[in-house]
Amino acid sequence: MNTDQKNTCPVPNGVLLVIGGHENKDGKAEKEVQEGGHPREVLETFIRLTGKEAPVIEVITTASSEGQASFEDYKKVFDELGVKQIGHIHHGKRSEALRQDLLERISQADAVFFSGGDQLKLTSIYGGTQFLLRLKQRYIYDGLVLAGTSAGAMAFSTPMIYAGSKAAQQIAGEVRITTGLEFLKDVCIDTHFVDRGRFVRMAQVIATNPTSIGLGVEEDTALVVRNGIETEVIGSGIVIVIEGFRITDSNILNFGEDDKIAIDDLNVKLLAKGSRYTIPQHNPPHL
User: Which of 8, 31, 104, 236 is most buried, with most CB under 10 Å away?
Assistant: First the structure.
């Protein structure tokens, strides 16, 4: 067996922007902005990544229970950032997403932005649709920029957390995960990470399958992901990386017994603005 074979999966030409939620929209320094930064750095980066003077942007608010209000918030800030062509996509149920009428708009977009809300709406409505397939094709082959904030970012990953409260996260097996939209594989994304104390629930996910990497992104902070694996931190907060390759023991198998979670030998990294991290590839691609 040749262990030196290269990864034959296509390297994405597009860029992901994984946002931890509550990104600054009004241009005021509500949170501490690091020296040389700008209060709107995260959303300005989203526009700049398109490389276009007049980009076409689609905002997908399907995760939100207040889709129109969410769209108006982003339309306002994108207008102020000079974007003239801003479309709104919202699917209230899966049957709507099965229609083909929006595929051409996705084909013409330079960037797509997923708002926050409920990530399970995104996977249950878009999983297995031509709509999602077109997004992935354009991300892989055409250089589409994809951004997600809060639930929109969490849905990019696989595995994807969809339930696990601050109290329940301490009990082995009480964090619920499913398959995400798989723009990143063997990567779990969690958002509002420091503000809402979500370290333990991410550690649980990694204990269930230590092949995966945990990326915990704080508010007003984002990871720019190029070539599918090369990441850089922007924004005013931090990103916490949890690796489980060296886990020696855990009690994750004690689910249903109300045991508090215990894990030995997690590896943790704290990344700040400008930090870079390459997502390890320990799971060879296969059909």
Answer: 236
